[in-house]
Structures are given as C-alpha cells and as structure tokens.
Batch of 3 targets.
Target 1
Amino acid sequence: MTHPLPDPTVVAEDVEDLKATVAALTAQLAALTGTQPSPGPGPSPAGPDPEEEGYPPFILLLEGDEYEAELRALAEWVEGVLVPGYLGEASQDARWCQQWTEHTVAIARLHALWLAWQELTDPATCGYTGPSIWHRDHLDPCIRELRAPTGPFAGCIKGERQINHRLPSRVPSAWSTTSP
C-alpha cells in the first residue's frame, strides 16, 4: 500500500513556521538568561528562576497584599475576558458561581488558566498556534472541571446563608457592590 506524498507547499510552510518558532524561543531564552544564542545543538542552559525574572508566582503561594493584588488582576481578566467570551451560555449542566473568588479550587484553576493565556496569546513567543493550544490544552479542560457536576461549584445553592449562585446566562461581577 502506498501513501500519497504531502503537498510540498504545505510542508515548506510548516517547516518555516517551525523555524520561526525555534528562532523566537531561542531569542527569548537568550534574553532571559543574558547569553548569546548558541549556533547549534548542545547542552541547553538551565531555565531562568521565575522569581528573579519577575514571573508571577502561582497565586496560592502568595500571601497578604501580594495575594490580594494578584486576585484583583485575575478577577479583571476573568470578568473582562473569560466570562463575557466563554461563560455566557446558559445551561442546566454548566454552573458558574458569581462569587468564584470564595472557591479556592476555582481561584487556583483560573489563575493557572490565566497564566497560560498570558503566555500562549503572545505571537512573539508562541507563533500563531498559541491561542489554539490554549483553547485545547487549557481552557476546555479547566472549564469542564469547574462546571462539572462534582466541580467546585457543584454545591452552590442560592440562599441567604449560602454562596450565591446562578446559571451562566449573565454572570454579575464578584467585585460589584450591588446585586443584579
């Protein structure tokens, strides 16, 4: 059995995309480590120390004012990008808690999702496939877990002494002082 050969134009484009990605990553690594890019194969230097390079640490490792500042920044992204863009469709099986900041598991998952979004939506570091990878590898699994029947919002019930919940047709801001 013979297999058809791939279109040379498509293969050439894929090779050029890979070359551009490798060049961008090599330049980024050189900038982060303060070294010159190496011309060929060989041992790679150790990666940068995230704290020394100014990368944001995982939110659950922060305390006090640092935690609050990171949570505010996360909330801006969740409520400005994620909720309006991805969580507005109503569904009986897809819960969303308007007070998601009260759920530590939701904070952890959403922060990890946000960190991945920051990295994978930058064409300089990820080319043009970063957003697709973010959707497939990060957004979809995260949202499935958050909205699952056993996810962090599964026990959310609307009531006076419970965290206030609603289906995601229109999700109000967790930082808002007025109720919808």
Note: Residues 40-51, 163-171 have pLDDT under 50 and may be disordered.
Target 2
Amino acid sequence: MSSSDSTTPGTRVSISLPGHRAPGAGFEAPFDMLEACHERVERMLGLLQKLRAHVLAHGTDEQGQQAARDIMRYFDQAGPLHHEDEELHVFPALLAQRDPAVVAVVIRLKQDHREMAEQWKDVRSALDRLVCARVDSDWPGFSDDESVAFDAYDALYRRHLIDEDGTVYPAAKRCIRDESLAAMSEDMMVRRGVKPLAI
C-alpha cells in the first residue's frame, strides 16, 4: 500500500501502513503465524511513528484518526492473542528444557508481556484522545508525556522481538514438534474462533 505525506495546502493527505503486507501464513504452520505476527507488529509500530509525524504536520484529520484506530484495533485484539500463544505453548516448552540461557530470556519476555500490557494503557489513551478530537479542531497534539510513552512502548517491543526471533523461536522450533505442534496449531485456531482443520 503506497502512502504520501504532503504538506501542500489543499492536498489530500494519506497515511497508511508502511512497507509490504506480511506474507500469508496458515495455522497449520504455527511458527510461520507467530513470525508473521512479528512483521505486523513492526508495521504497526512504524505506523505509530508515522502518525506522530503526521499529527505534527496536519493536526487532527480523518486520516490520522483512522491510523490511530488501526493501531488500537491491532494491539487490543491481535497483540494479546499473540502473547497468549507464546505464554501457553512456546514459553512452557522452553522452560521445561531447563537451558539456563534460554530460561533467563523467557523469564524476561514474560515480564515484558506484563509491562507491555501496562504501557499499552497509556499509549491507547493518547490514541483515543486523538480519535475523539473534533476533526480540524485546535487539538494540541500529543503531550510530552504521551511521546515518552510512545517511545518506551516502541523500544520495549522492538527489543522483545529481537529476543524472540533470535533466541526463543529457534529454540522452540527444536522442541515443539509433531503432536505438540499440532496441539499448538489447534489451540491457536480455537482461541480465534477458527474451525480446526479436519484430519
């Protein structure tokens, strides 16, 4: 999806998700699904950065408000489900392996999930304030505290993704196989209201 951010008066402004859509992945390949979710998280974090710049240049407009709604929808719905996938299937399997280095990372990632949930409250509140503002009003923009909250959320999530992609997922792929992988796939579908594939 292409995007432009022109500041020329009278020009319609478009703000959209940066980059390309993550490739399609099916529930029959749970780790492909998890990795695709990471790509979407990165795209949403990118959209949040783009939104902040957009608001500085254009104030309150429909495009900015829609971008805020898209971000809120993702981190309200898909984000928590993704964390549940990891908490229910990936992390327990790795903790059972008792590799000290991996266990230390998993413990940190579990704490990250709790911190993300708390930080998201502040980020969401700021986005909701934009969504609820009157279009073309004298909305003052995001506050300094809200900008700090955005930066903290972005930094935590990006470090979290690096730990998962670099350490946790490779280790999990080695120990979650066969029946465990099938059970993981089925549970991911059930919790999303998707009918499991017939065998």
Note: The radius of gyration is 19 Å.
Target 3
Amino acid sequence: MSTQNMLENEQETSYVPREKGLIRRDKILDAATDVFCQNGYDAASLQEIMAMAGGSLATLYRLFGNKEGLFQAVIERNSESMIKKLASPLMQGKDPIEVLHTMGSNFIDLLSSPMVGAIHRLLIAESGRNPKLREIFVKTAPERNLRVVADYLQSLVNSGYLQLDDSYMAAQQLLSMFKGNYHMRSVLGDTVVINEHEKNQYVKSAVSLFLRGCATAKLT
C-alpha cells in the first residue's frame, strides 16, 4: 500500500468517529432545546432528552457534564449561529453601508425566529429562580455578539470612516435599533412575518440614522 493510501485510510478512520460524535452531540442539543423550551429548566428531564435524542445518560454526562453544562451548550450553539450571521458580512470587504444593512437584516431574521423567541422566554421565566442561567446567557450570547459588532465599528473608526467615543456602546445602540419591536413580539409568542420590502426599509432607515450620528463623511 502506498504512503498516500495509508494517509487517506488514516484520515478516513479518524474522521468518521468524530463526525458521528458531532451528529450525536447535535441530536442531544436539538432534543435539549425542545425539552428546555417546553418544560422549563428545572422541570426538564435528562431522561426525556436522551429518549428523544437516542443514547444513554452516560453519553450526555460525558459530553456535557451535567444539566447546567447541557444548558450552556444549548445557549452557546444558539450564540454561534447568531455570531456567524453577524460576522459573515464583515468578511466580504464591502462598503460599510452594505455591511451594516446585511448585518441588520440577518439580526432581525434571527431575533424574530420562533426558536430564539422560545429560548428567550425560557430565560425570562427561569432567571429569577436561577441567576446562574442568566449569567451563562449574558456572558455567552449578548456579550459575544456585541463584541463582534463593536470590533467592526472600531475598525471603521480606525480607518477614519466613523467617529465614535465608545465602539462597544455604539454597538449596543445599533443592535437595539435593529431589534425594534420584532424581537419582543417573538418573545411574546407572536409569529413574526416580515416581508423583504418592509425589512429592507426598516434596516435602511436604522443604518442611515446611526451613520448620520457618527460618520465622518457626508452620506448620500
């Protein structure tokens, strides 16, 4: 057997178990998200989660440690999805107005989704009884998302495009503008349907208002 074939075989045998492990992990997280959102954190049963996902409790404990670790993994996966949506336009090297418009459109799509609304309802219901869950969420999701946007805004400051005293504060203000009442409607259980024209007009207006307050060049 050639060296190349040996390497390919080694890569194949090492890749398959890893892929199976990721699939198993995703199935558990899918089931956990459903059970947490339907039953709440305290009432969520790890046995029910594994019955839905398939597998043993030993697998769950090995992958996530305990119930709190599983909840954190659910929030982290949700946060990763949001970060990808926020960061993807930043990698394209486009005009800042176009980047911010894409960012805003993606942010509205995410925050108005039924899944995000359900997770946020869960957090509102549980955080009073379990402050630890609130800490996990704040450090994992909003903080990381804000940092992505703040870093991009700071890059525009460094290039001379924007004038900001505090990029992190500006990121909070910009994302709050994008949220509008779409996110609150989703958290309250409303099915938020936004046509593309309405969304584009809303985001265009938010970006324009934001840039008029901090852009160094006159905008057309």
Note: The chain has two domains: 1-65, 67-220.
